[in-house]
Design goal:
Structural class: alpha/beta
Radius of gyration: 18 Å
CATH architecture of the domain at 1-72 and 196-243: 3-Layer(aba) Sandwich
Helix content: 25-40%
CATH class of the domain at 1-72 and 196-243: Alpha Beta
Number of helices: 7
Mean pLDDT: 91
Distance between the termini: 25 Å
Largest sheet: 6 strands, mixed
CATH topology of the domain at 1-72 and 196-243: Rossmann fold
Low-confidence stretches: none
CATH superfamily of the domain at 1-72 and 196-243: P-loop containing nucleotide triphosphate hydrolases
Strand content: 25-35%
Length: about 240
């Protein structure tokens, strides 16, 4: 399968603290890859490096055959941050249409479709300032999806969403991957891991697993991904490497 994202020996430091320790991984096109790990493990730092907005000490990050951060990638990558990136004094629809206007060939109808996709059709004319936290996150997601990017980097996209909406969003993610979009989705919720084609498990800036959910379970000798993750962490702590 063709590779969409290639990370080689990535080292990131903040001050005197090393955040990522020579991390290497690859993400295939048209797949959903889960990036999992506890808070502070380095998930967001890795995502920022892939988008091209993170200063790195060493290593190489390539996206769609281009160095991360290359201007040619700007219209090909969608990045959803943990904090909603929308204008509070505009409605949901106005936000989506504004972001649509930044891209050639993207129409107001595309913006309206993105709003519907994230379940905000009934709130399309509502000011973002009046939305709940979960609704704001979905409004931000709609603005990320509106350009139909080839690569989607989603940092905790389902935090604060109810179980029904989380399920609907994951169905949308799977449909986008089936249509050729490459998705990297971070989460600290292990029950979402089974929805992914592949998992990257990070602990303290080190990659401790890079495999399918089934093979992660098999390597730990358990059918439970939570238990598998704990097993990998304990193995790393004892030996310095993942099993």
């Amino acid at each position: 399968m063709e590779t969409a994202i290639e990370v080689r020996n990535l080292v990131v430091e903040r001050g005197k603290r090393r955040v990522l320790h020579g991390l290497t991984c690859s993400i295939p096109r048209g797949s959903v890859t889960g990036l999992l790990g506890p808070s502070g493990s380095g998930k967001t730092t890795l995502m920022r490096a892939i988008v091209g907005v993170q200063i790195v000490k060493s290593g190489v990050v390539t996206v769609l055959g281009e160095p991360a951060g290359t201007p040619r990638l700007r219209h090909k990558i969608g990045y959803l941050t943990q904090s909603p990136s929308v204008y509070a004094d505009l409605t949901v629809r106005e936000n989506a249409r504004y972001f649509a206007s930044l891209y050639k060939g993207i129409t107001p109808a595309d913006a309206d479709n993105a709003v519907e996709m994230v379940g905000l059709g009934d709130a399309a004319n509502q000011l973002v300032a009046t939305l709940s936290g979960g609704q704001r996150a979905r409004a931000s997601l709609a603005c990320t999806l509106v350009s139909r990017p080839e690569v989607l980097i989603l940092d905790e996209p389902t935090v604060g969403q109810d179980p029904v909406l989380r399920d609907e969003l994951w169905h949308q993610f799977r449909a986008m991957a089936a249509a050729g979009t490459t998705l990297l989705v971070s989460s600290h919720v292990m029950d979402e891991a089974s929805r992914c084609d592949r998992l990257l498990l990070i602990r303290e800036g080190a990659l401790i697993a890079d495999d399918t959910p089934d093979l992660v379970r098999a390597s730990a000798g358990t059918n439970d991904l939570d238990a598998a993750f704990l097993h990998l962490i304990r193995t790393m702590e004892k030996t310095g490497v993942a099993s």
